[in-house]
Amino acid sequence: MSKDTIEEYEQTKRKQLTRMRSITDLVMGILFCGLGVYFLTYRRFGLSFMGMEPSDRDYFLGALCLLYGLWRVYRGYKKNYFRS
């Protein structure tokens, strides 16, 4: 195998891995954002989580999930995985 063929293969492999990680980050970020919004708003709709009454810790958990979800969406959008 020539050096160009190996470099081409590595570049193609890196692009595929970047695309896969980006899609995973976007999907997981959306799921975490949805979970965060749920924890921040379910008290207003009279819902309960696992049969428990809503507590103030739910706001903290919701904000944490929302921030983590937004960070995952940002990371998936930027696609900056291989820094040298």
Number of distinct beta strands: 0
The biggest sheet, with number of strands, parallel, antiparallel or mixed sense and barrel status, is: none
Number of separate structural domains: 1
Radius of gyration: 19 Å
Strand content: under 5%
Shape from CA axes? rod-shaped
Q: Helix content range of the residues, please?
A: over 70%
For the termini, the CA-CA separation is 26 Å
The topology string of helices and strands comes to HH
* Average of the residue pLDDT scores: 86
What structural category arises from helix and sheet content?
mainly alpha
State the low-pLDDT regions, or none. Answer: none
- Alpha plus pi helix count: 2
Q: What is the fold's blueprint, element by element?
A:
Elements lengths: L2 H39 L15 H22 L6
Q: Any key phrases for this structure?
A:
2 helices; mainly alpha; 84 residues
Question: What would you note in describing this structure?
Answer:
It is a single chain. With 84 residues, the protein is mainly alpha-helical. It has one domain (25-84). 73% of the residues lie in helices and 0% in strands. The protein is built from 2 helices and no strands. Helix 1 (3-41) packs antiparallel against helix 2 (57-78). It starts with a helix and ends in a 6-residue tail after the last helix.
How would you concisely characterize the structure shown here?
This protein is an all-alpha fold and 84 residues long.
